Amino acid sequence: MSGDVVLRVGKAAKFFGRKLVFKNVSCELKRGEILLLAGRNGAGKSTLMKIMAGLGRASAGKVELLVEPEKSAYLGHETFIYPGMTAAANLRFWAGMYGVDANERAVAAVLERVGLSRVAEEKAGGFSRGMSQRLNLARVFLVEPELVFLDEPGTGLDFRSLDMMRREIDAFRDRGTAVVWISHHVHEDRNIADKVLALGGRKVEYFGPAADYEPEGPTC
Q1: Could you say which DSSP state residue 126 is in?
Q2: pTM, rounded to two decimals
Q3: Domains and CATH numbers, the chain
Q4: What is the distance between the alpha carbons of residues 135 and 93, in angstroms, rounded to a whole number?
Q5: Is the pLDDT reported for residue 125 higher than 80?
Q6: 93: left (phi > 0), else alpha (psi -120 to 50), else beta?
């Protein structure tokens, strides 16, 4: 049903100056679906994701983000953590920016989900890259969005944290949350995704069921 669609892209193209990044990108994403963006380094995955999220503009074509801005969340390479604030204080600040009521119980629950309960009152400036990324994931979980954009969220995470992240991404589906996801581990993560959109040669090389996608060589 069209009412279930949260994101629609029609023949999108992107140029940087005269350099073509990609063209004729079309796709649709519904509530509860997970879309994995694949392709080699430089194929334009992050650029496409930013355009999908409304953080950049397509040079041609149409992109429709069909959820309210406060109901979408974006996690990029930067963690946007305030180092002088504790983990809990960071979450309360972000919740306020989103207009979300983050009481002590809600903050404690989301820190438990990402394995940071023991450092809730420690300043984030002393966190490792992996801990900072988990806190950034907690920010996404806290606002309970309808559409999530994840640009290589596994960067800096150990195997245990990667398993946690995959469980949480899979759980988004059960909550009816749609996910657009760029991963370093396409071979493994396509098992969680519903669809794959693969960029290559400045165009879409594949768009369809994740189960039918066969990566060739490095995909990131």
Answers
A1: G
A2: 0.90
A3: 1-67+146-220 (3.40.50.300), 81-144 (no CATH)
A4: 13
A5: yes
A6: alpha
